[in-house]
Amino acid sequence: MAAPAPAAPQHLPWGAEDLWQTLQPLLPGLSIEVVAQIGSTNTELLERARHGLRPSPQDHGQVPAGPAPGRRQGDTQPCLLVAEQQTQGRGRQGKAWLASAGASLTFSLSLPLAPRDWSGLSLAVGVALADALDPLGAGELPRIGLKWPNDLLLLDREGEAIGRKLGGILIETVSVGAQRMAVIGIGLNVQPQPLAGLAWGYACLQELDARFTAPLALATLAEPLVRTVLAFERDGFAPLQPRYARRDALQGRAVSTTLAELPEGIADGVAEDGALWLRVGDRRERLASGELSLRLSPGSGGAGAC
Description:
Elements: H1 16-23, E1 31-35, H2 41-51, E2 61-65, E3 79-83, E4 104-112, H3 121-133, E5 144-147, E6 151-154, E7 164-176, E8 179-189, H4 205-208, H5 214-235, H6 241-247, E9 254-256, E10 264-270, E11 276-280, E12 283-287, E13 295-296
Parallel strand pairs: 1-3
Antiparallel strand pairs: 1-2, 3-4, 4-8, 5-6, 6-7, 7-8, 9-10, 9-13, 10-11, 11-12
Helix pairs in contact: 3-5, 3-6
């Protein structure tokens, strides 16, 4: 007797139609795609924007809502691409992002943006995610902290440890005709995974609330993310600065940088454009996003990833 054929993989219940109905008024022309597996959602959307590529056959993609997924070169319609599993996820400076089906939420949002100043966009995205997943009342201490410029941490309540890595953000842009497309990649740990040797440790959303699944996390954060990105395009980072400060995981901590002219200092908040302030002796120095790789002083380590 022949062995039975392997069962087709069961996709998670993403509720893409409901999600599309929520987001489409904010992003006219939006398409939502869910794929079982892909190398990198960011890479896929960047390549489509650059070359007008259609989804790769190996993606085994579903197209549950919105217009057809094929993209023409010069097409600037927004797209939300969700992967149940990424095999080549990446973060800043090419660092790998480890993700497995069901245990992680990995997606990218591409849309045309024209802010007056792009500075602080990753911080704005971090605020949107943290506030959606960990809403704060008056006087409440956050469980989710933000590590400049692109990491989300599950904060430790006691001891000297800053917290464990919950997620990361990777933002890339590409010119498409006369417009510039932003591709905003998000990676969030949802369920416990047996990962060891991570510089920032491992944290997941189910430590925050055991009911979290990848689809529930996406449904929780998608609309606040889109609204925040559109507000950033209009108003910049400055209105979000107080919300970031409430979750600033580096505030008051000794840090070291890769810049020879400014090797270390005390993190002292972020400026209205998202730059990091460092206190060095009696001076206060600005560090702009993208100028350095930030790491904690000996005893901790870190890497942004998404």
